[in-house]
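#lab-general

N.A. 3:47 PM
ok so I finally got the sequence cleaned up, no stray characters, all 264 residues accounted for. can someone with queue access submit it? mine expired

B.Y. 3:52 PM
send it over

N.A. 3:53 PM
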Amino acid sequence: MSLNGKKSLLWELSMPGSSESSYLFGTIHLQERSLFFRIPEVQNCIERTNAFMAEFPLDEISAGEMDFYNLPGGRNWHDYLSARQYKRLEKIFLRFFSINIHAFNQLLPLVMEQVLLDTMIKDHSGQSMDFVLWYFAKSRGKTLLGAESKVSQLEILEKFPKDIQFKNLKKIAQNPASYKAKIRKAKQAYFEEDLKKLAKQSIKSLGKMKSVLVYDRNIKITQAIFSAMQQQTLTCAIGAGHLTGQKGVLRLLKQHGITLKPVD
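B.Y. 4:20 PM
back already:
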């Protein structure tokens, strides 16, 4: 089956020669309740399968381990920005996002983008899709798996140069209206279940880091899904931007002999 043009966030997977179904769902890192429109279906998939897989084991995150979202060595943005640059970010983020950056200036800029996104949400769900599904699966006694480890997530953050992260943050400040329009387009693409648009938007913004943040991870995620499916049925939830494209997880799974079918 050709994957081109197929619009669905939820996919049914089956191993060669098997009649048992597993499922793959594309999430979005926006905690807006209206975007959770397929979560009840995914929860039904979890009920029917033996295991649930997230991008990494979410139980491994504790309050004390949130420090890996901060700049290393107790540094803050003053160590990376000139006084003028800092002042500009302070002014723009307060005006357009109602954010006082003093409270967040120890965060990695990559993580700060999530804080900005949260200010654009009208009806906050309180939890990400990943956590909602993880704890639902846990409450049902399902085997809980991670496609990647927490250590690998840390390594990815460390590989993302701080200068590029700050460059992206400054780009948002240069044109916050354009950034907000981009997020609206991403939300609309998610509502339309248009994986191609979602992947194009997310990968375009990553520049030279797309291999580290997406393509290399897709290979690892695919292998984790394939290995797990050899042992049991599962429902897997990963960022929708990982699913499609020549180097996307759907195509890689197909190369492993997995049968794929969109769930309408």
